[in-house]
Amino acid sequence: MGDVEKKKKSKILIFGGTGYYVSCNYEKDIAEYTVKVATDPRTENGLIIYRLPKCIITQMDLISIWEKKIGRTMEKTFISGEKLIHLSEKINQDLSLRCTPSLVP
After folding, report:
1. Domain covering 13-99 in this structure, CATH number
2. What sequence ranges are listed for the domain NmrA-like (predicted)?
3. Is 103 helix (H, G, I), strand (E, B) or coil?
4. Which of 57, 50, 48, 51 has the alpha carbon at shortest distance from 23?
5. Nearest to residue 76, comparing CAs of 93, 59, 99, 96?
6. Residues 11-42: tens digit of each pLDDT
């Protein structure tokens, strides 16, 4: 059974390009910063900008880190932005056909 698990490949879909960034933040951290700002009189009537540069990473870097963690490479399927738009339009058309209310007199 161990050989089957080793041969099994994980698959991942990558939408758009490879240069997109993601921000990884814990809700607890954002909540903690928000409470600190809310209780600090120096920030009264001010604009707060959360800058967390260490938490910003590209999707390909995130996938690479995950591959190192699980100890195997993943099969990557790239879906272009144009194809993604085409798929979303097709889904919207299919949903609108199914969800059109019938007019009952």
Report:
1. 3.90.25.10
2. 25-94
3. coil
4. 57
5. 59
6. 888 877 777 777 777 778 778 888 888 888 88
